[in-house]
Amino acid sequence: MDIWHIRGGRRLEGSCRIQGSKNAALPILAAAVLCPGRCELLHVPKLSDVDAALRILCHLGCRVQREEDRVLIDSSTLSNCAVPHSLMAEMRSSILFLGALLARSREARLSAPGGCRLGKRPIDLHLMALRRLGAEIREEDGELLCRTPRLQGSEILLPFPSVGATENALLAACGAKGETVIRGAAREPEIAALAGFLEAAGAQIHGAGSDTIRICGFTPRKCVQYRIPGDRIAAATMACAVVACGGDVTLSGAEPGQISAVLHFLNAAGCDIIPDNHALRLCAAGRPTAVGPVVTAPYPGFPTDAQPLLMAALLRGRGRTLMRETIFEDRFRHVPELNRLGARIRVQGQTAEILGVEKLHGDTLHATDLRGGAAMLLAALSAEGESVVLDEGHIRRGYEDLDLCLEDLGASITLEH
Ligand code: EPZ
């Protein structure tokens, strides 16, 4: 159990470097399976989800070495195409090994993935995409048994731009003969990052980042080097922290363009935003102003991952903010916890109404999931008095040294393992 101790009410000042992106690193670690040679990844964040992906790679027979933020993977020694349930259950992205293993070995055996509890989170679109490429998939006693004599390029139409299904389709398409076209693809920056890695590894991909992606071939290279881009949700988290607490903070390694939907609302809340080449300065003072309505949507819309974070920033807002969650059915689990601090949030169906209060007070909260847990930290930092956030490891799945980053900016926060 992680125990976060927070004494609220301090302004944040200084600068902070944005970690490598979790949601870019995880698919790229699965993609390393496709490169039977040396793969060097830089700026890999130190997260428990990344550790889980490295454990899967080791289990598959790959050689893995980690030095600080540099990870070396040699998958020429891959000897296994089954991932046990205990490893699958550690995170959602474990399902991406399905597409990668089918492309590399034409066979995979694994179970349903774990991950944050945000709603039903089925994998039907992943399986549909892989079947379109010629994978035979049987579900038996909770296991997915997948094989194919040969993946064949095809046209895949995603009825919803699922991030994971697009990534699995991209990975599998690299092992397919002929051209694959993914229509209705997710446009998140993490898709472009995965495509960037695959191109560096020898794939020919056009259109990643748009809703139509073409994969025209793959000739694996012996050596690949790739730098994981900055984490846009970690950047959004720090930006929301500045609005929650007030302050003057510069985030380096952030791409403002990737979080413009979040910055739009922070600016409307009264925060000055000064973008600078790969950096971003945020200045906020006093109580924020209510904004809205905020409606989550696939990229480039307002990210569902930032919904709890913006909510935390607006708890002391002047006025009423409405937030509608459209991506996950159950992504307001942090709300009752935030209300414990004196916030006034009412949830009706998929809409939350935040009635700003003048002051929040400290209390003991239970982290419900990764971003919900981070939102609780931000709210506690903006509350008067002491708070404790009890967390079964959700926050460290996605944030590297969040306590140290916030402490450097002047917050009073300590993490006890
Ligand atoms: C990715 O999850 C991210 N995770 C999530 O980040 C993020 O919240 C989500 O995309 C949306 O942006 C990673 O990249 C590792 P989806 P993913 O497939 O791929 C439904 C975080 O906090 N759906 O786009 O699982 C699904 O139920 C995390 O860092 C199907 O119905 O998201 C959901 O309602 C949490 N069938 C919606 O689509 C499918 O086969 C979006 O899911 C797949 C998805």
Write up what this structure looks like.
The structure is a single chain. With 417 residues, the protein is α+β, with helices and mostly antiparallel strands. The strands form 6 sheets. The chain has a 4-stranded mixed beta sheet. It has a 4-stranded mixed beta sheet with strand order 2-14-16-15. It has helices at residues 22-31, 48-59, 85-88, 96-105, 124-132, 163-173, 189-200, 232-245, 260-268, 307-313, 335-340, 370-381, 402-408; strands spanning 2-7, 12-17, 38-42, 63-67, 70-74, 107-111, 136-140, 143-147, 155-157, 180-183, 203-206, 212-218, 223-227, 247-252, 272-276, 279-284, 294-295, 320-324, 344-348, 351-355, 364-366, 386-391, 412-416. Helix 1 (22-31) packs parallel to helix 7 (189-200), helix 6 packs parallel to helix 7 (189-200) and helix 10 runs parallel beside helix 12. The chain has 2 domains: 2-16 and 230-416, Enolpyruvate transferase domain (UDP-n-acetylglucosamine1-carboxyvinyl-transferase, Chain, Alpha-beta prism), CATH 3.65.10; 25-227, Enolpyruvate transferase domain (UDP-n-acetylglucosamine1-carboxyvinyl-transferase, Chain). The structure holds ligand EPZ. Ligand EPZ is lined by residues 22-23, 26, 92-93, 116, 119-126, 160, 162-165, 190, 233, 304-305, 327-328, 370-371, 398.
